[in-house]
Amino acid sequence: MLTRYFLIRTAVLLFIFSPPSGSAQEVIDTDTHRLEQVADGVYFAIGNGALYTMSNALIIERDEDVVVVDSHITPAAGRALVDSIRVVTDKPVTTVINSHFHYDHANGIPAFGDDVEIIGHEVTYQKLTGDPANEHTYLSSLTRFDNTVNRLQEELTAATSAEERRDLQSQLDFWRAHVEAQDEIEFLPPTMTLRETLTLHRGGREIQLHYFGRAHTGGDLAIYLPEDRIVFTGDMVLGGISYMGDGYVSEWADTLQGLKRLDFDLVLPGHGPGFRDRARIDNVQAYYTDLTEEVRRLKDLGYSAEEAAARADLRQHDALGVSQLGANLEAVQRMYDLIDGRIE
Ligand SMILES: [Zn+2]
User: Fold this and answer.
1) Among 126, 129, 172, 253, which residue's CB has the most CB atoms within a 10 Å radius?
2) 342 within some domain
3) Non-local CB neighbours of 313 within 8 Å, separated by 6+ positions
4) Which among 184, 212, 247 is the end of a domain?
5) Would you say residue 153 lies in a domain?
6) Å from CA of 100 to ligand 1 middle
7) What's the structural domain count of the chain?
8) What share of the chain is helix, strand, coil (3-state, %, to 5)?
9) What would the 3-class secondary structure string for 97-125 be?
């Protein structure tokens, strides 16, 4: 009874005191971003659709300067982020942290100038000094954007009403601008790297960078603000299942176990809205564990990666929107390659 009373009372209190939009204390709308103030001087930056940003960023103000986590998908999107930062502070951006090497989080860095310190995991450094222009995830994104432009062009040609044409034309302009923005791409590697942890103490604020193991990539960082109990997770934790095409699915749940040892109330993911419900992390952990077991089982039965991807039964994860048989083929193929030692 006591427990029940407590739960009801807590629910009522949460309802009264939690802000309406989940993570924001105050929201500042700029030309290109929605900036959610999640703590004093800390803003979660989400593109408002004016141009293609793809990933979220975090703006952390210190006494004399600003630290940014992730920089969006192109230098143009990075410049839009700089302009949005100018709406909330005049302080210079001295440091950009890469949550991981993926193009949609790292390719905006040139917008921050030549003098900026870029901090990332050693694996991020290896990836961005390797052959980033030929990384399969980057190449498939280019194909996807080209396909989108071609499809919209065809739809525009076939459109019958003025309203439809207007709508398609504006979508086409949006995606063409993004494709053109690729001409400026320049892959800038971290200027400072870490393997396990790094803490920035400057400017009245502690910023912790943690590596807990491989997950979405070989070098995912969690950026943790202990005083504010906030963690920015990049793509190692999203609201649902993350892209697994560069992932280490069999290690992912263990890595997230490390993340969960941090004392946070608010998770800010690399895509999608922030959330406070830690059960979402449990849900994706269970999915990666079950996917690992299911793929191993099917592989042991002699199925090819294609067959296993079609047959994998993960329908117990309906909380993550899994309602049908099957798993992502790219993920399963990669899991086969890792099991067979074709990749490390
Ligand atoms: Zn990613």
Assistant:
1) 253
2) yes
3) 294, 325
4) 184
5) yes
6) 7
7) 2
8) 45, 20, 40
9) ECCCCCHHHHCCHHHHCCCCEEEEEHHHH
Distance 214 CA to ligand 1 centre (A): 13
CA distance 112 to 324: 44
Separation CA 303–CA 329 (nearest Å): 13
Nearest Cα to 120, choosing from 133, 138, 132?
Answer: 132
Task: Say if residues 197 and 184 touch (Cβ distance below 8 Å).
Answer: no
Centre of ligand 1 to C-alpha 73, Å, is 11
Distance of alpha carbon 186 from alpha carbon 13, whole angstroms: 49
- Let me know how long the chain is: 344
pLDDT in tens, the chain (344 residues): 333 333 333 333 333 344 444 566 899 999 999 999 999 999 999 999 999 999 999 999 999 999 999 999 999 999 999 999 999 999 999 999 999 999 999 999 999 999 999 999 999 999 999 999 999 999 999 999 999 999 999 999 999 999 999 999 999 999 999 999 999 999 999 999 999 999 999 999 999 999 999 999 999 999 999 999 999 999 999 999 999 999 999 999 999 999 999 999 999 999 999 999 999 999 999 999 999 999 999 999 999 999 999 999 999 999 999 999 999 999 999 999 999 999 99
In which residue are the tokens 């099917």 written?
A: 298
Q: Which residue has the tokens 């694996």?
A: 123
Whether the CA torsion 254, 256, 259, 264 is positive or negative: it is negative
Distance 235 CA to ligand 1 centre (A): 5
| Residue 146: both structure tokens together | 């080209």
User: Is 164 within the bounds of a domain?
Assistant: yes
Distance CA 107, CA 77 (A): 9
Q: What's the gap in Å between 45 CA and the centre of ligand 1?
A: 17
Q: CA nearest 42: which of 204, 194, 281, 190?
A: 204
Can you give the residue range of the structural domain that contains 285? 278-344
Whole-angstrom Cα distance, residue 46 to residue 110? 19
